[in-house]
Design goal:
The protein has 141 residues and is mostly helical. 55% of the residues lie in helices and 6% in strands. A two-stranded antiparallel ribbon has the order 1-2. A hairpin with a 5-residue loop joins strand 1 and strand 2.
């Protein structure tokens, strides 16, 4: 499993937004410039973030998080941008002699991996990512 460019850029933009919105809304242009991301691509991502961010109109407008960074999880971001992050179910054909093997793999591998993914991603917030970033990297404006 790997994150798509859309998901990586979505997470980057939300961390940037959380870090830089303390003094007001942040423009997509400034997020794009700081992170080397196409503004058009960010516009597509932010269109999907309707419930995660809110737009502020006007000359000092831009975007802010719609909820606190502690309420937005990595799972939320993945679900918005990708639909699902779970491994696909591997279903054997009903008349196959390997139904029991396929079911064993499903229950002991795929279901367990999906459960662990849920545990990690539903409990990892943008706030935690911001904290790690601010503790380990210099902010560059």
């Amino acid at each position: 499993m790997s994150f798509s460019k859309k998901t990586r850029y979505g997470l980057i933009s939300l961390i940037d937004l959380a870090v830089n919105s303390q003094n007001g809304p942040v423009s997509l242009g400034s997020i794009a410039k700081r992170n080397g991301i196409s503004q058009q691509f960010l516009e597509q991502i932010f269109a999907a973030f309707r419930r995660v961010v809110r737009s502020v109109k006007g000359p000092q407008g831009g975007y802010q998080l719609a909820k606190s960074a502690a309420e937005v999880t990595v799972a939320d971001v993945l679900q918005v941008l990708e639909g699902t992050y779970h491994l696909d179910n591997q279903v054997a054909q009903p008349n196959s002699e390997y139904v029991g093997i396929a079911d064993t793999i499903q229950r002991l591998v795929i279901d367990k991996v999906n459960h662990e993914l849920d545990e990690i991603l539903e409990n990892l917030t943008i706030s935690q990512l911001v904290l790690y970033y601010s503790e380990h990297y210099d902010r560059q404006e």
